[in-house]
Amino acid sequence: MPRRINRALLPLSVLAFTLALGGCISTQGIAPHGETLAANSLATDEAIAEAAKDARWPTAQWWQAFGDAQLNRWIDIALQGSPSMAMAAARVRQAKAMAGVTEAAESLQVSGESTLKRHNWPTDPFYGPGDLANTTTWDNNAALGFSYALDLWGRERNASERAVDLAHVSVAEARLAQLELQSNIVRAYIELSLHYARRDIVAATLKQQQQILDLAQKRLDGGIGTHFEVSQAETPLPETHRQLDALDEEIALSRNQIAALAGKGPGAGAQLQRPTLSLAAPLTLPSALPAELLGQRPDVVASRWQVAAQARGIDVAHGGFYPNVDLVGSLGYMATGGGALEFLTGKKLNYNVGPAISLPIFDGGRLRGELGEAAAGYDIAVAHYNQTLINALKNISDQLIRRESMDKQQAFAAESVAAAQKTYDIAMIAYQRGLTDYLNVLNAQTLLFKQQQVQQQVQAARLSAHAELVTALGGGLGAGNDVPNAAQTQAPQTPALLR
Description:
By secondary structure, the chain is an alpha+beta fold. The protein has helices at about 1-20, 45-55, 70-80, 85-105, 155-220, 225-235, 235-260, 265-270, 300-320, 365-430, 440-470; strands at about 110-115, 120, 135-150, 325-335, 350-360.
């Protein structure tokens, strides 16, 4: 009876001994140190954490606020045909495929093999003289082998979840590439519109200069003007023609840039018509920007998923310190001698099944090194997330400051143009009545031209600032689908930096 008890306890003893040996390699002293910044410390909202669980983006097409159908069409073309978007989509597919490869390790693995070969048995000290000496027989076998990882410590499960997290990172990075492409096209389109507006100013200036030249010539022909006045009126014309040619060049280059961003050649860019968006178009902002918008930023979402992936990596490394138990087995036929297919008969069947245990005992520090690398990788991911969060808040704050400044500058520029236009009109009337010379008209015209240029640049910068702000907020001025609804969370509070 005692012997039977001892035999029953033998498996438990083996398991206890196995676990005791597992303690030979210690994880003591290896742990991550990084901590993600608290949401309240940066005046953010818990929606940032929600974004790590379900990254969904705003569906509104923010560039439609500019009211230009051609811009909308070219952004659609770019999203469908841009090489950068094709690469981003391929990276997403690659990451998903790798996640599938990793997840496959959790499933039952079945493999089959078979060999059919003729074997010549020599007569030598090993085989010796016997029935097979100096004969040639079939030496055949066929087998099905299977293995299943029991994953007692969750190593395989954590590895697959880490791969899924990395796939989410690639999705967020693809969204970032999409947002950058949209922003780049909008900026290039605004620049194209600015070139056309500046060309209008230069063309109007050329027309006025020609009118002044005609007036000076008439005054000379009438005997009340001088050749000097005519020469003064002719002087700025070549420079104005040069400016027109330079702006035509800028327009052609902007067309090429937009076509390249959309994945098209220069021929497609030449088909671009003059933008219909107005540089002075009113673009309103909501009275408050909720903090959830920060969670729409793809870089914040990607960084958060990277932290989650690195945390899983630590769990994977921890699992390597414990015994690995797999259920393995095989079913097959084998025979030496007989006919070519005789090995498939029932009497040649063999099988085996049982657990396979691998145990780390001494590895020269490999497992501790892997755990240390995973812990350091987690700290790096946390630091990167914190820096991304800080940069995101700074970027949003910068764009809000810039947008507010552009609104004020636009008003001041309009006042300057109005004052310069008034000065030019007075000088022109005085010149026509013979109360002043052409130099005053030329100076007033130069000032008006300069102020009009400044006004157009300020208006274009204002549109660009609006586009940059929307991009900094993840592609929309309103909360998208990536934040909890009102039934799941309280109404968001506007952070101090976003008020």
